[in-house]
Amino acid sequence: MHSMSDQPARWTKATVYPDMWADPADDPRNNDAGQEGELATLLDFLTNYRITLRMKCADLDPEQLARRSVPPSTMSLLGLVRHLAEVERDWRNWITEGDPLPKLYGEKDADFDGAVAEQAVVDAAYADLEREQAATDAALAGHPDLGERVGKERVAIRELMVHRIDEYARHAGHADLLRECVDGRVGQ
């Protein structure tokens, strides 16, 4: 168990700007293609936040990914990956008229509580996230009209897209802090 007094030294891989995660030329989120239209813009923001989460988890072992580094919170980087897989599934439930899909990890907070330092858990979490993201993306692709209202609650596709961006952005901020506590790496 690591205490808050065991703070790692701050560092970055960036050489151009010392407060960046990576040099701009090496940052996979930097694409100069201007997005045309609201849907393309929303998808670009979502994609970039998804990449940010993966970047914040990169090059860590299972113990580091599972480390709950901001007590008393049970949040960890691995828990965030599992949580976002769970909410991707839940967002699909928002757009369906049928019975909801069951939770991936069980009751409330099981996504964080079950984020243990085992390679099999890490591998499963990433597989779950990829599968759930792809399934939600595919379901939403069938609704290109952002004003269309779907599901039992009649939620607008636009609202769902903005909510997804909000969720990933908020957790990317958490990931910044968690990663810095794990090994001191900082940056945008």
Describe this structure in words.
The protein has 188 residues and is mostly helical. The chain has a single domain (44-183), classed as Four Helix Bundle (Hemerythrin (Met), subunit A). It is built from 6 helices and 2 strands. It has helices spanning 38-57, 62-66, 77-95, 110-113, 119-141, 157-183; strands at residues 149-150, 155-156. Strands 1-2 form a two-stranded antiparallel sheet. Strand 1 and strand 2 form a beta hairpin. Helix 1 runs parallel beside helix 6 (157-183), helix 3 runs parallel beside helix 5 and helix 3 packs antiparallel against helix 6. The chain is globular and about 50 Å long. The mean pLDDT is 90.
Q: What is the N-to-C succession of helices and strands?
A: HHHHHEEH
Helix/strand-derived category reads mainly alpha
- Ranges where pLDDT stays below 50 over 5 or more residues in a row are none
How far do the termini sit from each other?
A: 27 Å
List the domain count as a whole number. 1
Q: Identify the overall geometry.
A: globular
Based on CA atoms alone, the radius of gyration comes out at: 18 Å
Q: Look at the structure and name the CATH superfamily.
A: dinb family like domain
Counted by DSSP, the helix tally is 6
Q: Mean pLDDT score, rounded?
A: 90
Organism: Streptomyces peucetius
Protein name: DinB family protein
